[in-house]
Structure formats: C-alpha cells, structure tokens
From TrEMBL:
Domain of life: Bacteria
Recorded family membership: Belongs to the drug/metabolite transporter (DMT) superfamily. Small multidrug resistance (SMR) (TC 2.A.7.1) family.
Example GO BP: xenobiotic detoxification by transmembrane export across the plasma membrane
Primary location recorded for the protein, binned into one broad class: membrane
Localization terms from the record: Cell membrane
Protein known as: Small multidrug resistance pump
Membrane spanning stretches: 32-51, 58-79, 85-104
The species this protein was found in: Panacagrimonas perspica
Membrane topology: Multi-pass membrane protein
InterPro entries: EmrE-like (IPR037185), Small_drug/metabolite_transptr (IPR000390), Small_multidrug_res (IPR045324)
Alphabetized Pfam families for the sequence: Multi_Drug_Res (PF00893)
GO MF annotation terms: amino-acid betaine transmembrane transporter activity; antiporter activity; choline transmembrane transporter activity
C-alpha cells in the first residue's frame, strides 16, 4: 500500500479515535472507550507503515496539521463546539503549512 494512503488512513483513524475519546466521557462509556483503543491502534499501525517511506518529520507535520483541522471540524459538527475567526485563521495557516511542505520541500521526496 502507498505510504501516503497509509498516512491518510492513520489520520482518519486518529480523528475517529479522538472523537470517540470525547464521547467516552472519561472512559465511563464502554462502546466509545473501545473505539478509542481500536482507533488509536489502527492510527499508530498505519502511521508506522507510512514511516517506511515518508520521513518522520514530514509524516508528523502532515499527521498533526490535517488531524488538527479534521478534529476541529468533527468537534464543530458532532459536539457543537464553536470555531471563532481566530481558530479558522489558525487552521488556514496550518493547511497552508502542510501544503508548503508537500509542494516545496525536498524532504518529501525521500
């Protein structure tokens, strides 16, 4: 499987696990708690697979940047958490940073 596809799966699994973490209410709700453990397990497994081809710094930058944006959107959509203009501006800068890394960094080619 392509390293970037593995990274994408890792990011989605991490966002699902983090959303379940919120729903687990401090691990007092069994089903979301199981989702946390399974989701993070899948996330780290696929992250480790992506690191066979993607440098760790690049993978982690993409993981964290995309993950921050996706979990913020999930929080807004699922848990009615608000996103003010400063949060939206910050997320825009994060996306811009990930794009700069992927489009212009020679490190990505390794």
């Amino acid at each position: 499987m392509n390293a970037w596809a593995c990274l994408a799966i890792a990011i989605v699994a991490e966002v699902i696990a983090t959303s379940a973490l919120t729903a687990s209410a401090g691990f007092t709700e069994p089903l979301p708690s199981v989702g946390v453990v399974i989701g993070y397990g899948i996330a780290f497994w696929f992250l480790s697979l992506s690191l066979k081809s993607i440098p760790v710094g690049i993978a982690y930058a993409v993981w964290s940047g995309v993950g921050i944006v996706l979990i913020s959107v999930a929080g807004w959509a699922l848990f009615k958490q608000s996103l003010d203009p400063a949060a939206l501006a910050g997320m825009t800068l994060i996306v811009a940073g990930v794009m700069v890394i992927n489009l212009f960094s020679r490190s990505v080619a390794h």
